[in-house]
Each structure stands twice: as C-alpha cells, then as structure tokens.
Design goal:
The protein is an alpha/beta fold. Helix content is 52%, strand content 9%. The model is unreliable at 1-14, 22-52 and 129-134 (pLDDT under 50).
Length: 560
C-alpha cells in the first residue's frame, strides 16, 4: 500500500458522512439493488420440430443458431461491455489517464456504469504515484478518486467489498486511517463482510502514525468479524507496540506470530530484533519467577512456550544462529523441543481431508480406497511413488522406489512394507512391463503394499490421506503448496508436515532419506525466558535454517 510522504500537505477534509450524500440514498441502494441489473434481451425458445419434415426442421434449427450468434455478438458489442474491456486494459497497463478519458466519454454518452466499471476506476486511482515517483498519491488523483466514489452514490450503484477497500486505500494514501476505518464500519453496516485486505489501509495507517490504541481497535474489529491477521499485520502491530513501549502487546504479538506463521520473514525478524535490543525490553521481565507455574504453562500449551510473560532481567543478547541435527542452538546451547500434536486435531484433520477428497474424487473411487486401506492398513510409512520414482532422475526409476521401500522397511519397528501409491498408468504401462519391474510390482501387490489410483484421479489425495489416517511418515519431495493443499488451511497442515514428511536427498550412493527434525521449527519460548525465532528459508536441504536467538545477558533467579 502506498502512502503520502510526510511532506505532502493535507489536501482533502473528507468525513465518512460526506462520502455518502444521504442515508436515504444508501437505503435505496440496499433495497433496490435488483434495479441495477440490465434486462437481457429475451432468448427465443427452442422450436418444436416436426419429424415429418427433416428439411424444414434443419432450416429452423439453422435460423435459431444464427439468431443466437447475433444476440451474443450484439451483447459483446454493447457500449457497457466495450467499456469494461477497455477499462480492463487500462487496469492491466496501470493507465489511469486513459481510464478517466473513457469514464468521462461514457458519462457524456449516457452509458450506464455498473459497480465493476467504478471499481476499476477506483483501483487505478489508488495505484497512481505522485509526479516525483515517491510513495503516495498526488492531490488531483485523490480528489478524482473520491469524486468517482460520490458519483457511484449519486448513480445509486450498489457498493461491494472491493468498492470500500479501494476507497479505504485512497483514505490511507491521504494519511487518514480514521476515514479508512470508518469506511470498514460503513461496509459492515450495509451487510458487506470485510476481508483481510479491507482492514489493511486502516491498520497499517494507524501503525505508521504510531496510533497504537486505534490499531488495536482495528485488530479487535477483525477478530469480531472472524478475519485472521497474517504475518504482515502482526508484524506491524508488534512494531507499533514496541515503539510505544507496550511490552504486554509485544508479548501477545510474539505468541500470535508463533501460532499463525510459525516462521517469520527477514523483515519481521528485524522488527523482533529491534524490540529485544530496545531499552524497554531490558527493563521488563520477572527476575524471580515461580518455576512450577511456568512448567504448568508449558504443559498446558503442549510444549515450546509457557505464556506467563517476559522472564529474566537486564539486557538481551540477540544473535543469528543455526541448530544442529538434535535441535541444539549453536549460540546459547539450549535444546529446542518437539511440540506435540493433539491426537484430536489429527483425527479432525483426517476427517476433513476425507470429506474434501471424497468430493474431489467422487467419480474415481476414493471410497473404495478408504475401504481397501481399512483392510490393509495402518502402515508405518507411505511413499509417493511418482515423486520418488522421478527424484533426481530424467526417467522414471522403479529401482529407486525399491531402494526407498527397503530402507523404510529396515527402519520400521514392525518391519512391515510401506504403502506405495502409484497411478494406474505407472503400474500397467511403460517401464512397469519390464520383467524385473513387473515382478517387483506383483510382490508389493501380494503383500498389500501397493495401491494403483484409477484413471482420472489425483493421486495426491490418496497418499496424503493414507499417511494422515495411518499417523505415519510420508516420503515425498512434494512441497504440497498448490491449490489442492491450500484447501486444507494453514494452521494444522504445516505442523503435520513438519513432523511426518520424509524428504529425499541425492548422495554418492544413491538416495538418502532426510527424516523429520526431532524438534519443532516454530517460535519457541523456553522455561528460562529465552526465545528462538526461525526465519523462512528456501527448500534447500543443504542450507541450514537461520534462527534468531534472544537470551538474557544477566542471569535471573527462578524460585521453585
């Protein structure tokens, strides 16, 4: 979001009420929204053809098809549609000047503008930079944006979430977060549900101005409307809390980051570091704390944090560091913990996964797979056959899958074969027909350790469900980030992956298994009061993850 630079003088004095010429007009919009829909020309009914005259029937059908094509072409050539197409091109190119020319031309020609046309114009107004290329909008652009919004009210165009969000951005650009927040409230009053993006202009605007209490009010409004803050919002709240020396709010935001994002960006890590190095951070903290209460908090939270407030006293020592394979900090020597996953959470996740997969794979036999799994499972490990067979290979390799399967069997307490999930085409065609591969596949089938997903299915659902329902390891280099996995949400799934995904690493003797770490890669607060904050890293197994280690420079005295 672009904001005006501090040197920019105030240019408009706009109140939320001035943007809405009359309440009666807004009421009219709400109750007469249906009047905004332009009636499309009636479509001719399909003629009833007589079987006695094939030629006449064919002629009537041809005329009907021609009529439909003419109507469609007329609709495409209508002024409203042409205006939409041209405005879309302006939006793509960021061309506000051309968009305003089209707008004024449409007004002169009495072309009826709908909410989509207006939203594109407002969006372009909110994007325009000033003439010096600095952040913010020039006065003329701001004024034009608000004029367009008022014109929408006058034209009785039904407003939507995008409308309010774009105008909120204009308000933020003129450094008026109060107006941006009032617009969100207006949105709510009209029965329009705000989104996360709707709150950004007000929240970031208040944070930028150091108006902490107002920022907390926006945050509370988000919670009330079930809109979850993400890293950028929490980072802004953490920074403003640090700036105004509200240590209890900094503590709250640290734990919300822990629960929401787990790992932080470099930008957020810098905000966290600034807090720990501040004078206020050195002044706060219990120097004599109840260890029993702290342990009780750790137990209640599942490990890795206690939630009882800042511990210790004096300056903080903050350094960048890494963890060894056992999870021991290479700076302070403290060992990170592995945070348990509630079995009930796993059960609920498996249930939701089953429901999603059943809907997506309704025609390909997912129910049959679930029944098969009940007969042959549970397993100690599941192998994404397609991913493993192609790992670091130009061609599909059954021998590579075999090596992984044998290694997993050796590691298994029950010495049971892992489940290999492969698409039916992989099992029945190509290299699968080679004698050695055919013999290998038959042995897995007889052992109940191979499932061939049917044609038209997405095998991702199958191997993921098998691993979750069996509460076992999953061998794949798939990062599970596409739209399919986004359906699963971003709360439980990352924690599950961290504890169950086995990755493949190339080595001189073939493929090595990279087991899940014995500790949780999440912000951790120790019983001694130190903090370890992991940063986001690329998917390079050879590059150690960077952590921020924050410990007290002066020892404190816990009490038993």
């Amino acid at each position: 979001m672009a904001f005006l630079s501090p040197k920019t003088p105030p240019i408009l004095s706009v109140s939320p009420n001035s943007l809405f010429p009359s309440t009666k007009c807004i009421d009219y919009i709400s109750c007469n929204a249906k009047n905004q829909v332009r009636k499309s020309p009636p479509i001719a009914r399909t003629p009833r053809f007589s079987t006695s005259s094939g030629g006449q029937s064919l002629l009537q059908n041809e005329r009907y098809s021609v009529t439909r094509r003419i109507k469609k072409q007329a609709l495409r050539d209508s002024p409203e549609i042409m205006l939409r197409v041209n405005l879309d091109q302006c939006s793509k190119n960021g061309d506000l000047d051309e968009a305003l020319r089209l707008y004024h031309e449409a007004k002169l020609n009495n072309i009826q503008l709908n909410v989509y046309h207006y939203n594109v114009l407002l969006y372009l107004c909110s994007l325009r930079s000033d003439d010096d290329g600095e952040e913010g909008l020039n006065p003329e652009t701001l004024e034009k944006g608000f004029e367009i919004f008022k014109e929408m009210i006058i034209d009785r165009v039904e407003l939507n979430e995008a409308t309010f969000t774009n105008v909120s951005r204009l308000a933020a650009a003129k450094e008026d977060p109060e107006l941006a927040f009032n617009l969100i409230k207006k949105m709510k009053d009209q029965g329009i549900g705000p989104k996360l993006r709707s709150y950004g202009p007000a929240l970031f605007g208040f944070c930028k101005k150091g108006m902490a209490d107002e920022a907390y009010e926006v945050d509370s409004h988000m919670v009330d409307n079930q809109v979850s803050a993400e890293e950028s919002e929490l980072s802004a709240l953490l920074k403003v809390s640090s700036d105004v020396k509200r240590e209890e709010k900094v503590y709250e935001m640290m734990h919300r980051l822990r629960a929401t994002t787990r790992q932080v960006s470099e930008e957020t890590a810098a905000v966290v570091e600034d807090w720990f190095l501040s004078e206020r951070a050195a002044e706060v903290g219990l120097e004599n704390w109840d260890t029993g209460k702290i342990k009780k908090g750790v137990l209640k939270g599942g490990g890795g944090w206690h939630g009882q407030g800042w511990l210790g006293g004096g300056d903080w020592r903050v350094v960048g560091t890494t963890m060894d394979e056992a999870g021991v900090c290479q700076s302070c020597g403290e060992k990170l913990v592995c945070i348990d996953i509630d079995p009930k959470e796993t059960e609920n996740f498996a249930k939701s996964l089953s429901e999603l997969a059943s809907k997506k794979e309704a025609t390909t036999g997912f129910f049959q797979f679930q029944e098969w799994l009940q007969r042959h499972g549970p397993f100690d490990a599941v192998v994404d056959g397609a991913n493993v067979g192609l790992a670091n290979q130009h061609t599909f390799s059954f021998s590579q899958i075999k090596g992984v399967v044998n290694r997993l069997r050796e590691l298994s307490p029950s010495k049971k074969l892992p489940l290999v999930v492969l698409h039916q085409n992989r099992v029945n065609g190509g290299p699968a027909q080679y004698p050695n591969n055919k013999k290998l596949l038959e042995s897995w089938k007889k052992a109940g350790a191979l499932y061939a997903t049917p044609v038209g299915s997405n095998d991702d659902w199958y191997w993921l469900y098998a691993a979750v329902s069996s509460k076992c390891l999953l061998v794949t280099n798939d990062e599970m980030r596409d739209h399919l996995f986004n359906l699963l949400g971003n709360s439980f799934f990352p924690r599950w992956k961290e504890k169950h995904q086995v990755r493949l690493k190339p080595s001189s003797d073939g493929i090595r298994l990279h087991m899940p770490p014995p500790y949780s890669i999440v912000i951790q607060e120790s019983e001694q009061g130190s903090w370890h904050i992991p940063t986001v890293t690329e998917d390079d197994l050879e590059t150690p993850r960077q952590w921020l280690c924050a410990t007290r420079a002066r020892n404190s005295m816990p009490t038993p």
